[in-house]
Amino acid sequence: MARSKGSKKAPARRTKGRGRSPGGFVGRDASPVLDRYPPKDPALSIRGPPKGSSSTPSPAAPLKTETPTAASSAPVPLIALERPFDVDEFSSLLGETSIRVTVPREDLAEVLRRVSEFMGFGIYVYAIVVRPTPGDLLKSFVVELQRVDYSAEKGAWTPFVDKGASDSPFGPSGTRT
């Protein structure tokens, strides 16, 4: 039977069913996981690898092929946690008098671009030395930057000598000449 436009629909009734559960969830029961598996005591949790060596190596750990000699008393770590080279971190070093970093081959062009861009301001000028690291088959390079100043008397670039800080805008001597 069709309703006429003037009749109103009765409001929906809420049935008393579950209501609010004690766990704080609205509209459903609390999770039974916490009842079955209570939270662990934080004092009992493991905080890292056990002290001492295990006799069976883990499948992820590489096997040692050579035995340690008596001359090397320090244990050799299985993995080395070296931070990867970061070009932005290197850029924060620019402005120092002397900088020496080892740069991977794929980042060398970006490092040299940032150094030349930094020197473009004309305040800091560096003598740049780039050489390959020994035995790496050109996978990384040592980049050395030494700050230099131009000497008009010698007509050449000379190593920068720090003359100290001054409050005068005319330099350490305090005069214009």
Q: Which consecutive residue ranges, at least 5 long each, have pLDDT under 50?
A: 53-59, 61-68
Distance between the termini: 106 Å
Specify the biggest β-sheet: 4 strands, antiparallel
Radius of gyration: 35 Å
User: Strand fraction band?
Assistant: 15-25%
- Helix segment tally: 3
Would you tell me the structural class of the helices and strands?
A: alpha+beta
Shape: elongated
**How many E strands?**
4
Multimer state: single chain
Task: Specify the helix fraction band.
Answer: 10-25%
- Listing every helix as H and every strand as E from the N terminus to the C terminus, the arrangement reads HHEHEEE
Q: For the residues shown, what is the average pLDDT?
A: 74
Describe this structure in words.
This protein is α+β, with helices and mostly antiparallel strands and 177 residues long. The chain has a domain at 87-154. It has helices spanning 33-36, 87-93, 105-119, and strands at 98-104, 125-132, 140-151, 156-159. Strands 1, 2, 3 and 4 form a four-stranded antiparallel beta sheet that branches. The longest helix is centred in the middle third of the chain and has 15 residues, at 105-119. The protein is elongated and about 100 Å long. 3% of the residues are buried.
Salient structural properties:
177 residues; alpha+beta; 4 strands
Q: How is the topology of this model organized?
A:
Layout: H1 33-36, H2 87-93, E1 98-104, H3 105-119, E2 125-132, E3 140-151, E4 156-159
Antiparallel strand pairs: 1-3, 2-3, 3-4
